Structures are given as C-alpha cells and as structure tokens.
From TrEMBL:
Listed Gene3D superfamilies: Cupredoxins - blue copper proteins
Domain Plastocyanin-like span(s) in chain numbering: 60-168, 319-382, 486-612
Protein name: Laccase
Stretch forming the signal peptide: 1-23
Entry-linked Pfam families: Cu-oxidase (PF00394), Cu-oxidase_2 (PF07731), Cu-oxidase_3 (PF07732)
Organism: Cercospora kikuchii
Lineage top rank: taxon: Eukaryota
SUPFAM superfamilies referenced in this protein's UniProt entry, alphabetically: Cupredoxins
The family this protein is said to belong to: Belongs to the multicopper oxidase family.
UniProtKB keywords: Copper, Glycoprotein, Metal-binding, Oxidoreductase, Signal
Gene Ontology MF: a single term: copper ion binding
C-alpha cells in the first residue's frame, strides 16, 4: 500500500495543478506523455499518472460558425493515455467548467475498481465545477479504448480522448494470418507499436444542450447533423437535389414522394415528418431553419485531416474510434484494402475488407499495406443510417506527399455506398476473437428486453430498453450513488437486474418495429458474446428453449463475436421486430450501466442497471465514499 506520506505528497502536487494550463507549474501532465513513476518497487505494478483539465471554449470545427465545445488541456479532443498491460492508472480530472461532469473509460473492465467506472449517480457523484476527481484502475487488458464524459451528452461537445494499452510481448498476435511472409509479420509488429487512434464522428452546429432543447421544444426525435469530423475537424458539404436523390435509399425516396415531400432536405436529412416520429403532437414551428433545411457549406480552417504514414515500414496500423452522438460510420481508403485485426481492443481473426463499419462506441483496428503510389489517398467516412446523406473526408499521405494520386480507386461514394458489388464490407458482428474464446454452452439466467419508443403519454424522443419504463437522466444526480448503497436494499425492478457472481447471463434484446433500427448497445464492466440474432419476435423464455424452433446455425457458441459495443439487428424483410442475443459471465461484481450509445436515445431513457455479483458485492474505499478518490487528509 502507498504510505500516507506519499499520498500527501501526491495530493500536494495535485493541488498545484488545479489551475488552467497556462498557470500550472511545468511538472503537471497536460500532454500525451504520461508520467511513469519508476520509484514504485517490489510486486506493485508501474503507475501511470495522467491529468486532464476541462474548460469550455469556442470552436468552428466545420467552417459553418463557432459554437461552444469542451476542451481538454486547451485542445479539442483530449490527449491519448498510453500505458502497458498491467500498469496501474491514476487518472486525475480537474473540472474548470460551469457544469457537472464525469469520465467513463469505455471498454475498460474495472474488474476490481467499479468505483472508477465514471457513471454519475451509479458509481460516483458528479464532479462539480471547480472540483477534481482521481480515477484509479489497472490496465488488465491490452487494446485501444477511449475515455469520455458520461454526464448528460457532453461527448457530443468533444469530451473524449483515446486510451492505448500496449500488449505484453508474449501476447499472441494474428499477423501471420494476414501474411505468411516473415518480413511482413515483422513490419506489422513494428507498425502496431506505432499504431495511432483516429477519431471519426458526427458533429452538430448545436451544443448538446441546444440539441436536446430543440427536441424538447418541437417534440421530435431530432436526427440531422452538420458534418463528419476526422480527428476533430471537417467540412459541411451541400449537395444538389439530384445528387441527394441518387444516394437516397430507394424505399425512403419513394416514401418521401408519397408524402408529397419528394426529396431529402438541403442538409440531406429525412424531414421531421409525423410518419417517422410516431403518433405524437409535433411542434414543427419550433424547429430552427438551420436544423434541417439550410445548408451553409464550409470547411474547417485546418482543412481535412492528414494521416501521415511512413512507407518504408511497409504497413501502417490505425484504430478508428467513433465517439459520435448519433451515427454509425462507414469508412474506406481509396486504393487500399483494410485488414481488420482487432475490434473493441480484442484481437480477431483478420478479415480483409474494402469498407468497415465503425459504430458509435466501437474501435476498429486495421493494418494497411503501404504498396500504393506515394500520394495523398482519400479517406472517406459517411453516415450508415438511412436518415441522412452525410459524408466527410481525410487523407492518407505517404511520406509527406502533397500530390493527389494519378489513378485513384475509390471504394465508396459520398454517402458511404460501395462502388462495386464485388467489394467487401466488414461489420464488428462478423468478427471472431483471436485466440479463440468460447462462451458457456448454456446460461444460468435469461433477461428479455424490449427496445422501442415509449409512446404516448411520453414524448417523441423518449425511449425504453425494457418495454415500458425509461431510465431517467435525472439518475445522474442520485446521492448516494447506487454502488455505495446496501445492495440488499436495492429492489429488482424492470430497470434494475441482479446476477450472482460466476453466473452466465443471457440478454435477449427485441427491437420493436415498425422501422426497427439498429441500436449500438454497450454494457459496462465486461465484453459480451453475440451468440445469435434473427427477425420477428422472440417468444421463448431462453435461448435453450428457442434452439429447436429456429434454423440450424442461428446460434453460434463456437466462435461468436466478443464485443463491448454491439449492434442490434435492424429491420429485415417484412418482419416488424428483430431480436439479438448476447451472453456474458458475471465475473466482476459492481453496478454496471447497460445502454444504447446513441446519445439522444440514452438521454431519452434507453438504459438500465445491471448489478453483477450481488453475492460478492465490493466494499468501496473511504477515498471514494467521501473524497473523490483522494486520500483523506491526515489529522495530527
């Protein structure tokens, strides 16, 4: 254990670093380089200390006008936390904003530190304006993750950054499955050590608070963004009506014509029609003109982001991370195949694709063979939902090249559709872990959930994950947080489930139609195996009961995807409903949020609490009961 003297020293140093970046002493951490405390000896793991300061500043990320955003250490998009597998992380947050906040470490299992999961009202109290908080956890699993706010929808305002945990040398890599040539394998290993996380996200000219305000005033499920950002900046493109028609899904286009609207809006969006919002009283007079119908057009002063690569290595490793508010994104690179080698931080059996889907909350790691012309090759990113035609661009530059390629070979168009039917798409649900991981062949308990809009008398933007109740955003202010309560006193409800430690648990999610859309679901605390999916309802009480009634191969217990963020199945054929089944082992006791990662759906109620391992409930340290993770001051 740390000595009181060492903690006092750490706290003293921390207090000196509370001010804004410009006024802090040089010893404070405000860059991508974390400070490794080499003084730690014996059996204790190395400690990586990482500090961020949060402020609100103005930014014009897409050249269409400035808006407020959240800056981390005076930068838009936070610095990357680099650590080694097994390191202990001390992550300090200084809140200089005029609003409460918190930080969640997306994909980090928190197996022995559930009080550092960062969900206000559930695992901690809010970090108040002017306050600091110390998150303390161990990097048990290697891979690429990210930290982001879990307060309100602050992620839509830019509060996020990457977490890269380097694997141990003995960890088996799947690179020999990409190429049998030893030189290629060595080059890929070198490229992995230089892997860069690249954030791709949707972006609105409205702050998250303004965005939700429009929803409330107009009583609509607001879904129309302004641009796609790559690493924090991008452009707004205004297409002609003919161009939008060419890229609009034929079914959507036909519906618009039947409803006398004819086309997408100038911003490429489905207008807020009654048919798509449901049976609610809409107040469309409260929708600003800029929300749907006016496309300004513009470009960030920095232009499109450039991903520089060194062709002498032979390969490049990139991990695409989507922290966006609404949209899953399709991504391709002109003239290059993408060799997917990890998903959500987990190595997978490699898949070669022309286009990859990066869902909200997902991380897709790819190897790229650098064997093309030394030029600037276009990276294309586009919304995958049918509701809006929206694209963005970056450039992959060989050796600092400034020229465009002589003969570019695009894989997708502006709307993200493949140029050729012979090209291959990748979705995370196609992956299988490497080395192989298998779930139990049966579950100890099953919970069935139903994802849909709440309907009347609720509002058009309110959702449920359980069938009839929404998880109210006001739970962020619950005090004391649920983790600190006596778990025996917490009742089992539609929104609160309990499991026993070591149990295998099935979650069956039925997505209700009509227009059953895919929802990116994220369970805190652990990854899950996606064992099956299908169209129609799921009338059975368990997967075991369903197996004899469904076609052979419906369920996969041998090599299913292993993910921390997975998509439910969208509408298939004529069936209104779809279902998705996942299985996990409740091996880490704690209070875990399970929710849709679309920010407007979460704020609208699509979430619930899973209390895993109630028979082995953790004792929360005093530092996290009363002192925001810091040791209480020593009294003489």
């Amino acid at each position: 254990m740390w000595s009181v003297r060492l903690y006092s020293l750490a706290l003293s140093l921390l207090l000196q670093c509370i001010g804004p970046a410009a006024g802090r002493p040089s010893g404070c951490v405000d860059d991508v380089e974390a400070v490794r405390e080499s003084e730690i000896k014996g059996t204790q793991p190395p400690v990586v200390r990482f500090e961020i300061s949060l402020t609100t500043q103005s930014i014009d990320a897409a050249g269409i006008g400035s808006r407020e955003a959240i800056f981390i250490n005076d930068a838009f998009i936070g610095p990357t936390l680099y650590a080694n597998q097994g390191d202990r992380i001390e992550f300090v947050v200084h809140n200089h904003m005029q609003q409460d906040t918190s930080i969640h470490f997306h994909g980090i299992d928190q197996r022995s530190t559930p009080w550092s999961d960062g969900v206000p009202g559930l695992t901690q109290s809010q970090i108040r304006p002017g306050a600091s908080f110390l998150y303390n956890w161990t990097a048990h699993e290697a891979g690429t993750y990210f930290y982001h706010s879990h307060a309100k929808s602050q992620m839509m305002d830019g509060l996020y950054g990457a977490v890269v945990i380097a694997p141990n040398d003995e960890t088996p890599r799947p690179f020999h499955l990409i190429s049998s040539i030893e030189a290629d394998q060595a080059a890929m290993l070198a490229a992995e050590k230089l892997m860069r996380p690249i954030f791709v996200s949707d972006w609105s000219q409205y702050t998250s608070a303004e965005y939700h305000g429009i929803q409330h005033a107009a009583n609509i499920d607001f879904s129309c963004m302004d641009s796609i950002l790559v690493q924090g900046f991008g452009s707004q493109y205004c297409l002609s009506e003919e161009e939008l028609d060419d890229m609009t899904n034929p079914i959507v286009l036909q519906l618009l014509k039947e409803l006398a609207r004819g086309h997408m809006t100038p911003k490429g969006c489905i207008p807020p029609l009654q048919m798509f919002n449901g049976d609610f009283e809409l107040h469309l007079e409260n929708v600003p003109e800029l929300a749907y119908n006016k496309c300004k057009g513009g470009q960030s002063s920095k232009g499109n982001y450039t991903i520089d690569v060194d062709s002498s290595i032979g390969w490049a490793a990139l991990t695409f991370v989507n922290p966006g508010g609404l949209y899953p994104l399709q991504l391709s690179i002109d003239s290059h195949e993408l060799y997917v080698y990890a998903v959500d931080g987990q190595y997978v059996h490699p898949i070669v694709a022309d286009r990859v889907l990066v869902n909200t909350g997902s991380r897709i790691s790819v190897m790229i063979k650098l064997d093309q012309e030394k030029a600037r090759h276009v990276v294309r990113v586009a919304n995958d939902y049918l509701n809006q035609i929206l694209g963005g661009f970056a450039e992959l530059a060989y050796d600092g090249a400034t020229n465009a390629p002589e003969h570019p070979h695009p894989k997708t168009n502006y709307g993200g559709k493949l140029i050729s039917s012979e090209m291959v798409s990748f979705v995370p649900e196609d992956s299988s872990p490497y080395p192989a991981l298998r779930p139990a062949q049966s579950a100890d308990s099953t919970f069935k959930l139903r994802l849909k809009k709440l309907g009347q008398p609720y509002r058009a933007y309110e959702w449920t994950q359980t069938g009839s109740l929404g998880y109210n955003i006001s739970h962020e202010h619950d005090d004391p947080p649920l983790l600190l309560q006596n778990v025996e006193d917490v009742p089992v409800t539609e929104l609160t489930l309990k499991t026993q430690i070591g149990d295998w648990v099935d979650l069956v999610l039925v997505t209700a139609g009509p227009f059953a859309q895919a929802h990116p679901m994220h369970k805190h605390g652990n990854k899950v195996f996606l064992i099956g999916s299908g169209s129609g309802n799921f009338p059975w009480d368990s997967v075991e009961e369903a197996i004899p009634h469904l076609p052979e191969g419906t369920f996969n217990f041998q090599d299913p995807p292993y993910l921390d963020t997975f998509n439910t199945v969208e509408m298939e054929g004529q069936a209104n409903d779809t279902w998705t089944a996942v299985r996990y082992k409740a091996e880490y006791a704690g209070a875990w949020l399970f929710h849709c990662h679309v920010q407007t759906h979460l704020s609208g109620g699509m979430g619930m609490v899973v209390l895993d391992g109630v028979d082995a409930w953790p004792e929360v340290p005093l530092a996290y009961q009363e002192w925001n993770g810091f040791e209480p001051p020593a009294l003489s």
